[in-house]
Amino acid sequence: MAPSTQTLPALVWEGGLSVAVRDVPAPEPTEGFALLDVAYTGLCGTDLHICAGEHSRAQPGIVIGHELVGTLAEDAGDLRAGQAVFANPMMHCGTCDACSRGLVHVCERLRSVGIDRPGAACARVLVPAGGLYPLPAGLALVEAALVEPLAVCVRALRRSGCAAGERVHVVGGGPIGCLLALLARDAVAAPGSGSGSGAVTLSEPSATRRALADGLGITTVDPERPAPTADVVFDATGVPTVAASLGRWARAQARVVVVGAYPPVPSPVDLLRVMFAELSLVGTRIYTREDITAAIELVASGRLDLGRLVSEIVPLDEGVRAIEALRAGSALKLLVAP
Ligand SMILES: [Zn+2]
Ligand SMILES: [Zn+2]
Fold first, then answer.
1. If you classify domain 7-134+305-337 with CATH, what class do you get?
2. pTM surpassing 0.70?
């Protein structure tokens, strides 16, 4: 069979700091994958790492976009064409030690749509057929576009063991930091007491981002100023200089949860402080089926009013501008609508 000559425009990392919208081969039906018409793809810090050549696996020419919702372009398993779905972009190897213990989300050879194979900043994308989650009828796809980052936060909160009555501090006011602060507020609220907003703080050096978080009702602090210490500290930055100072937010016996992705080189951590204050360092990585299902239920409940986190919905041909806005730190969540 002759190769298809059909192409589609897509947002592509070209190497270095260069990003462009250019035509790529249209995805063809492939065994083990489902063909999706993309409604929205969210851009995040991982995309910025890719588009700066800082991601260890992404290769120039990759179509970015791993946070996606859309509708099935053809039947997939029990699901019919036209069904709105969230698609887990991750692919595990099935044979490593983690996979053999059922921990597929921390597979030693985990790969992802939008990093290792063409992503969703394109009208059509192939997604792993085993990772489809039908969305409830009537759920706004703009809000469903936040299921992926929300699932990251659901897992982080689960890993933290955060309980009612505890104090929480979030370091970093990007979309993940803000989502964590909003989720943690429910987790620390004593049953029947309503909001736990006073017990959750978020530090962020950028005044612009602090103002965005304030607008969501989050209690923000300037990291240059002293602040109360917490039982649970979430690091939603991935910034090496932050790693060294995480202990300052932690009370004795606090859990420090690393949510942000760090560069693939060791970052300095104050281990004497970990030892002296009996801190626990906890890692958390993406999400399990359970976390995704919980995130979809949360979005469908409307409790978090997630649409507020979306700064702008950008058409694909303005994708380069969206990346620049993210680089400038002037936006919370940006969605591309291919
Ligand atoms: Zn992401
Ligand atoms: Zn594996």
1. alpha beta
2. yes
